[in-house]
Amino acid sequence: MPMKKCMRRLSLVNLVFCLSAFATSAATLDTITERGSVRIGYIADEAPFSSSKAGADPEGYAIDLCGKIADEIEHQVPQLKREYIEMSLANGFDAVKDGKIDLLCGATTVNLKRREIVDFTQPIFLTGATALLRKDSPDYLQTLFLDKPAIRAVSQHVQSTRVIGVRANTTTGEALREALATQVSKTKLADFSSHEDGLAALEAHKIDAYIADQALLISLVTRAHDASSLEIGDRLFTHEPYAIALRRDDADFRLLADRVLTDFYLSDDFLPLLETYFQAEAPMLHTKIIMEHVPY
Q1: Domain 26-126+240-290, what fold?
Q2: Among positive and negative, which fits the CA dihedral 140, 142, 147, 153?
Q3: Is the Cβ–Cβ distance between 171 and 240 less than 8 Å?
Q4: pLDDT given at position 180
Q5: Which distant-in-sequence residues (6+ apart) come within 8 Å of 217 by Cβ?
Q6: Residue 116: CA count within 13 A, CB half-sphere
Q7: CATH of 129-232, one of 3.20.20.70, 1.20.1740.10, 3.40.190.10, 1.10.357.20
Q8: ω before 78 within 30° of 0 (cis)?
Q9: Strand-strand pairing, 230-232 and 240-242
């Protein structure tokens, strides 16, 4: 084949490849417009960020922020419908990548591993991992997670299980598993499919502690059978920035979402929303999020 024809064919191949890549990364907003709906994925047991009840739309802090983004989309897509699709941590990010949902809303931590398959908005919350303990949990755990002396009564002879619980498929679970793998320890890690299952195991003395992000534990303990018998750790061992997951390679859609969040953070409505879900912690959270927000 003549060199000129070969080069022409090579150029055409490159052009077809580029056009194909462009087509597969069609703008999220265009897809939403064609569909007439925005698909909002959520994780059901992450109150106060996202939770659901039978026969009702999901609710929570992250759901409300995703709703603000949907409001902005509706300015460009009149009569926009909102489809809420329940996901799990195991399949939520793939659903975003594959275009099955447009936004993933919940207590979703940003990390580099997840950014290999999805993108994220600017942070919507900042927290870290700690432990939910019983007041008779072993002393070594109380010393590790609480900024005060162990409070287990000497008269209580509770057998330690040497098992710590964590929700499956979380960044916290991954970090704990890696830490335990690097040292000789009798402590084992038990995975649970939901935070409620972990709470039940803790109250039943099947595990000595349940590890999760502090913001989630504060909400979880309110659903305990006996909250007075439990203690939330005040030492944080990880940095967990939460954000809304969306598709990679769509800078325009991420810019739309980030503009919505910045506008809302700077509005008079942001602090009241934080107070709705986080009560006394709201002013401190307001300051932290404002300090991390993306400015104009």
Answers
A1: D-Maltodextrin-Binding Protein; domain 2 (3.40.190)
A2: negative
A3: yes
A4: 74
A5: 130, 131, 132, 210, 232, 233
A6: 3
A7: 3.40.190.10
A8: no
A9: unpaired
- In the chain (296 residues long), the average pLDDT of successive 10-residue segments reads 51 45 64 97 95 93 98 96 95 97 97 96 97 94 82 50 90 83 77 95 96 95 96 93 97 97 98 97 96 96
β-bridge pairing 245-246 and 119-120:
antiparallel
pLDDT digits 0-9 by tens, 192-238: 999 999 999 999 999 999 999 999 999 999 999 999 999 999 999 99
- Residue 65 pLDDT: 98
State the pLDDT at residue 25: 45
| Mode of pairing for the β-strands spanning 129-134 and 230-232 | antiparallel
Count of residues in the chain:
296
Separation of alpha carbons 296 and 294, rounded Å: 7
Q: Which helix (H) or strand (E) holds 236?
A: none
**Cα–Cα distance, 125 to 292 (Å, whole number):** 9
DSSP 8-state assignment for residue 45: E
Model pTM? 0.83
Return the structure tokens found at 286: 């307001």
Q: Locate the domains of the chain by residue range.
A: 26-126+240-290, 129-232
Gap between the Cα atoms of 40 and 32, Å rounded: 11
